[in-house]
């Protein structure tokens, strides 16, 4: 079965942000909107994250633990930002 149309669903969640070891960092959660979508002609499923602490060219980082700078070391990953199957592929 081929799906040749844009498919999207938006989910409102609350998030307490993450630090570089994955622990929550905010005392009070912030409201976040996550849109999960699939584009026509593609098998990739991806997300767009609308969050005060979302950073990076593809919204792949969380800066809740370090709001004054965009990136620390390799960056803190946003657990809600993904591109599948890319997220599961290993570098060769």
Mean pLDDT: 87
What gyration radius follows from the Cα positions, in whole Å?
Answer: 15 Å
Strand order of the largest sheet: 1-2-3-6
List the total number of helices: 0
* Assembly form of the protein: single chain
Structural class: mainly beta
Specify the helix fraction band.
under 10%
Number of β-strand runs: 6
How would you sum up this structure, described in words?
- With about 90 residues, the chain is mostly beta strands.
- It is about 0% helix and about 35% strand.
- The chain has a four-stranded antiparallel sheet with strand order 1-2-3-6, with no helix packed on it.
List the keywords:
about 0% helix; mainly beta; globular; two-stranded antiparallel ribbon; about 90 residues
Question: Topology of this structure?
Answer:
Elements: E1 7-15, E2 30-38, E3 45-50, E4 54-55, E5 61-62, E6 83-84
Antiparallel strand pairs: 1-2, 2-3, 3-6, 4-5
Outline of the structure:
By secondary structure, the protein is mainly beta. Helices cover 0% and strands 33% of the residues. The strands form two sheets. Strands 1-2-3-6 form a four-stranded antiparallel beta sheet, with no helix packed on it. It has a two-stranded antiparallel ribbon with strand order 4-5.
């Amino acid at each position: 079965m081929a799906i040749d149309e844009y498919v999207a669903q938006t989910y409102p969640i609350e998030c307490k942000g993450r630090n570089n070891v994955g622990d929550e960092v905010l005392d009070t959660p912030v409201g976040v909107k996550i849109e999960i979508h699939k584009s026509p002609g593609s098998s990739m499923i991806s997300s767009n994250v609308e969050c005060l602490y979302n950073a990076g060219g593809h919204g792949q980082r969380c800066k809740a633990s370090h709001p004054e700078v965009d990136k620390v070391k390799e960056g803190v990953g946003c657990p809600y930002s993904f591109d599948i199957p890319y997220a599961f592929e290993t570098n060769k």
